[in-house]
Amino acid sequence: MIIDLDAHQGNGHERDFAGDKRVYILDIYNSDIYPQDFLARRAITQKVELRSGTTTSAYLHQLQEELKVAKSAFHPQLIIYNAGTDILAGDPLGGLLISPEGVKERDELVFRFAEEQSCPIVMVTSGGYTKKSAGVIADSIMNLTAKGCITLGSTGISK
Q1: Which of 127, 22, 120 lies closest to 80, judged by CA?
Q2: What are the residues whose beta carbons fall under 8 Å from the beta carbon of 14, sequence distance 6 or more?
Q3: CB-based contact 56:98 (threshold 8 Å)
Q4: From its record, what is one biological process in GO terms (predicted)?
Q5: What's the CA gap between 116 and 94, in Å, rounded?
């Protein structure tokens, strides 16, 4: 399963896995911005098109609902999680209005989803075109650690 929560519609992995029923793609993105790749969009299993200006509360509510749908539709063996920070309010490219706290909650929701599925998760950071993105990522990882979603082992982060 690919959970793509970068502000931009994924198109590389969507084109790579088009027609492959072994891969379930949940993509929540701002449909007003680049790349608007309509061919790749057809490969998205679960597509959620947001509009510019979507707020934290609306975003998190939508994510919770979509994770419920995904849970009943697919049972992953591995989750690749694209945790873009271009969803942050003030990002010059993302167009969404998500707070730093909202990013932390988003990440926690996805990690809890993986835990409920008894599924390993790989989190990749992406997007984020402001100086505060790195700090938001660090804060989110610290939150995930504090909440027991991940642990810091001697060789790095694990679960």
Answers
A1: 120
A2: 25, 27, 37, 40, 41, 43, 44
A3: yes
A4: epigenetic regulation of gene expression
A5: 30
The DSSP line for 36-74 is --HHHHTT-SEEEEE-TT-BHHHHHHHHHHHHHHHHHH-
| pTM metric for this prediction | 0.94
Considering the chain, what is the average pLDDT of its residues? 94
Low-confidence ranges of the chain (pLDDT < 50): none
Give yes or no for a contact between 150 and 159, defined as CB atoms under 8 angstroms apart: yes
Are 9 and 35 in contact by the 8 Å Cβ rule? The answer is: yes
Cβ pair 93, 33 in contact under 8 A? yes
Q: Dig out the tokens for 118 from the structure.
A: 């008894």
Closest Cα partner for 82 from 12, 18, 158? 12
In the chain, the domains with their CATH numbers are 2-158 (3.40.800.20)
Joined together, the tokens standing for residue 37 give 């790749």
